Amino acid sequence: MPEETTDHARPVVDTAHGPRTGDVIATPAARLGVLARAWDSDIAFSFRRSPVTIVSAAVALVMILAAVLAPWITPQDPFDAASLNMMDGFTPPGEPNAFTGNVYMFGTDPQGRDMYSAVLHGARVSLVVGLASVAFSLTVGVTLGLVAGYLGGRTEAVIMRVADVQLSFPAILIALLVFGIARGVIPPAQQEQATLFVLIFAIGISNWAQYARTVRATTLVEKSKVYVDAARLIGLKPFVVMVKHVLPNVTGPVLVIATINLALAIIEEATLSFLGAGMPPTQPSLGTLIRSGQQFLFSGEWWILFFPALALVLLALSINLLGDWLRDALNPKLR
Questions:
Q1: Are residues 89 and 155 both part of a single domain?
Q2: What pTM does this model have?
Q3: Which terminus of the chain, N or C, has less C-beta within 10 A?
Q4: Among the listed ranges 41-50, 197-206, 308-317, 320-329, which one has the minimum average pLDDT value?
């Protein structure tokens, strides 16, 4: 008798060897069932019930897409000095320039750089620094926290004491220290090209301790559970137990911290750039644009500062609100 198939799966037919028992592929009905279950999940329900979260997600998505597509949707490359026209300098938003007649939605800066193009390209740089630094700090923090919590002993003591010392200093001071050391080590001719990587390292290394402490605390709970004891009994090595069994169960808090830290990393990058320890004027981030714009705030060219500052506030605030929602949505005590 041929095997009966349900509406959600059917056997995979191999033309050379015939159908094989147990090999199934998902039908469109099965895929729709997965989507329906995801839509009815607690997290999706919490998302639909929060208007603030929906608006924050929409704002963050629009700004991230605009930054990613900046080279194709902006009329000017703000990094190309040859494309700038000094005659377009200080053009107010939406008004024609007195000499060229060109109209710019966000106005222009003293060099004739279109502020709309500069803001999108600056947000692109800020997002790259934020995402890369969060990925770096997450990797370092999760690894050290997992090792400290699982192995314990002197290893745990050393890692946690280093984390405690680092947490006693503000992250911005640690980033400034790392940036200053890098400036002294890297040759002057290569400093501008290396600024992006130095920023990522400086911001990332100043935020790993939060991940380490959280993962270490969660690992201490998880390693005393039955499934970890069973993995040890069957002879799995500690590295395999940590990666395949403990790590998947500590990702919830890490995801929340990473979302919130993304907003903080973008603000930290803007702060460093504003203080002159960030991206150079030839590759401006939002912080660099704000630093340049504040010089003209009281001379009447308010738009040079206003639009980069507004973009930074909207981007950081929307991501931060998403992180707050995710923290509440993943907390079983609040369900």
A1: yes
A2: 0.84
A3: N
A4: 41-50
